[in-house]
């Protein structure tokens, strides 16, 4: 049984405001309602200090590891455009769709530079099963006929 499957249509002729009669029985019901919602607080007296003490740390281990990794990799430097294109085409031979983050990891190129190249050779899917992934434009896909075959045909 669905409560929302039934609808009521009509027009309002008169407006009415209802207020309960403030009596002892009503106040008792309201008091019980408020007490049932209140969180139960528990006070305990401890006989000794708690032994597990968490001291503040200036920089956590995982942050230090991340910084070391970043320093060892160094700053991303723009590689030759043809090298980046070769890396991208070899990656797209393995899979048809890649997230942009994966493409950055594969090529190790700055985001703006890679996005500039990808806009020329690829399209970003905005909808469907492969949402927010990049694929090559039809003219760059490896299963298209090569340029030599296209020139031979009239």
From TrEMBL:
Transcription regulation found in the keyword field: yes
InterPro entries according to UniProt: TFIIF_beta, TFIIF_beta_HTH, WH-like_DNA-bd_sf, WH_DNA-bd_sf
Localization in the cell: Nucleus
Example GO biological process: transcription elongation by RNA polymerase II
Pfam family, one: TFIIF_beta
Matching Gene3D superfamilies: Winged helix-like DNA-binding domain superfamily/Winged helix DNA-binding domain
Protein name according to UniProt: General transcription factor IIF subunit 2
Species this chain originates from: Xiphophorus maculatus
Organism classification: Eukaryota, Metazoa, Chordata, Craniata, Vertebrata
């Amino acid at each position: 049984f669905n409560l929302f499957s039934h609808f009521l249509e009509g027009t309002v002729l008169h407006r009415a405001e209802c207020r309960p009669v403030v009596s002892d029985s009503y106040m008792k019901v309201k008091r019980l309602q408020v007490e049932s919602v209140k969180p139960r607080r528990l006070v305990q007296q401890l006989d000794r200090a708690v032994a597990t003490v968490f001291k503040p740390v200036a920089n956590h281990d995982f942050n230090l590891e991340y910084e070391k990794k970043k320093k060892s990799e160094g700053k991303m430097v723009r590689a030759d455009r043809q090298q980046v294109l070769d890396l991208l085409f070899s990656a797209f031979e393995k899979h048809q769709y890649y997230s942009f983050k994966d493409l950055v990891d594969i090529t190790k190129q700055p985001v703006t530079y890679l996005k500039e190249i990808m806009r020329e050779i690829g399209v970003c899917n905005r909808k469907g099963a492969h949402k927010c992934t990049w694929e090559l434009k039809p003219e760059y896909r490896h299963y298209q006929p090569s340029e030599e075959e296209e020139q031979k045909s009239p």
